Amino acid sequence: MGHLSISPTCCSRKMQGMYEGQVLLSRTERRARLATRATVRRFFCSLQSLRLGSGFSRRSRFRRRARTSGRRTSDFPPPPGIGFQQEVTVSAQGPERWGAPAMGSPGDGEPGAAGAALLDSDTRRAPPPGIGFQQEVTVSAQGPERWGAPAMGSPGDGEPGAAGAALLDTPPPPAAAAPGLPAAPGTNPLSRKLNKILETRLDNDKEMLEALKALSTFFVENSLRTRRNLRGDIERRSLAINEEFVHIFKQVKEELESINEDVQAMSSCCEDMSSRLKAAKEQTQDLIVKTTKLQAENQRLEMKAQVADAFIAKFQLTPDEMNLLRGTKDEPITEDFFKALGRVKQIHDDVKILLRTNQQRAGLEIMEQMALLQETSYERLYRWTQNECRTLTQESCDISPVLAQAMEALQDRPVLYKYTLDEFGTARRSAVVRGFIDALTRGGLGGTPRPIEMHSHDPLRYVGDMLAWLHQATASEKEHLEAMLKLVTIQGVEENIQEVVGHITEGVCRPLKVRIEQVIVAEPGAVLLYKISNLLKFYHHTISGIVGNSAATLLTTIEEMHLLSKKIFFNSLSLHASKLMDKVELPPPDLGPSSALNQTLNLLREVLASHDSSVIPLDARQADFVQVLSCVLDPLLQMCTMSASNLGTADMATYMVNSLYMMRTTLALFEFTDKRLEMLQFQIEAHLDTLINEQASYVLTRAGLSYIYNALQQHKPEQGPLSNLSSMDSVSLKVAMAQFDRYLSAPDSLLMSQLNFLLSATVKEQIIKQSTELVCRAYSELYAAVMDPSNEYKDPETILHRSPHQVQALLS
Known about the structure:
mainly alpha
């Protein structure tokens, strides 16, 4: 049966931790710890009351022998059978250590002196602060070994040690009765208390763990000496902490006393100042009342002054602005003038607000003042703008930003705005006329470019240079006007620009018209007239695109010159055509185009070439093209017909085909000639049919088949068989076939001489091919008639020994 020995080491470490942290814990926590210590004391009292039997007697005898030998009981192993061994050490303030013997003497059943002191201390009071309590309980198994439980926690970890944890976590084994002791009943109060204490888990007691953690910071070695000195260490540590607190609180007290003195001084000073202020307030009460009234009056006056200043700033001009608007005649206009003028407009618009309030009189006066000032300002601005426009008489002028601002301001006065534009147009008109005359006679600066009059011998360049200069001048004047009116926002600005440009360019119309008329009336030739006409039409279209149709005088002049040149051009063509008809030339021996036809076609080619290079609109070019073709081609066709009227059929057809082919070739190079080409093609095909028939007749006549084919065409069935005719008998047919065979051997030998005069090889091949087809067709009809039994030819194969297919193959 095992022995149970309980050492109070864990309780000792708990108490040491309690003493270490008692300064920081509250009164309630200390009471809880005192209650725990009381429970431990009652536990040991219960153990003392249970010391019965021989086991305790032997233990007492063992202690007495130990005392007689001068050795501690803890130095000897417990004898067998001893179940409890307890050593309680209570140390006082000094370094002395005293050890209490067993709780009771052998066999007396009462507690010893130490036990009585412990019990008395439990019943009387708790240990005073700083007194350590150390208790060792040793639990040993059945055997001679004795072991002491180490401290519950290791130094510094704040947690119980391994042995302590084992002791706390392991439930207590059932107590066995010692040899010679009666078994304790299950309802023994001591057993219940012991089990309750052993089942207590210290890991749930946070206060205990904190105490053990604080103790582990300085209790680093669990030895007999350290346990004996633990109380002194705790007391010294507590004393040091208390001394530190005293020192710190002493400094705090001194600071508080210093603050208290300062507060007292401040309180005295404040009381003194309050008394003084009270006295001063009583003495200056009247002055304060007057001052308050004056301050209120001052605020009202300041508010009125602010309102007056705001009113003046909103509805009146500054002296500088007045001086700008009423400046002298010689003073220039600057941007500040327009700012002041804008300010007048704004005041004039804002004063309408006053007319809707009770301040109508002030509003009317201000409105009248601003109206007069506006009129004065606009008058001065108009005079200045008029003078500026009169200075713009150079060939190239620069429009200043101030002038553009002046036009923007004058748009509110339409009459002044219109007068200013007229003044600008008059000044620029004289500048443009002078520049045009200088360009004609003097040229540019330094002689470059040369004067336009130097090229008067070249009518096209002469007219072109004048129109080009005028086009450039028109575009420049439009740019000047756009720069001057770029800030104007009223409607009709574009119309104003076009109107002024028309007025400016009107001055050059007369000198331009005189010079162009001189060129046109001189009749430089139909081609040049047509080129000049196209040039005039081009510039008319270009200038109208720049300035619109409002520049009526200039555009009208150019249009008149265009119509004049066009009229003289067509008159020239009509004159040329009348000359052709007056003296009709006979066809040349080669039946080709006549010289008059070639000259006219060359003239037409040049006219059409210049027409294609023209940049006038497409519709206008097409209308001119139709008129030109009608004026030239119709007289040519009539001339060719009259010239060939006295020729034979083949000669006339050949001549007409060559003439029409030349016309068609000339027109095929230009646009807008599709209808004329189609008409010429129809006429050529009609004359080609004539040549084809003539060539076929010529071959049939030379081959001996013409008479036979005519008889075959005239024969009728009621006349009887064809072989009965005198010229259609077998002998006549054989003679004709012999001659036809010679033609088949050399088809090119039977060509009309007129075919060699054809200018187009394609046309010649077409005539030969189609005429050969006619010959083959005539042979086919003759072959069918001969092979027809009703015509009663004997052995027709001997008469016509070639089939139509063979003949066609030989001729192809």
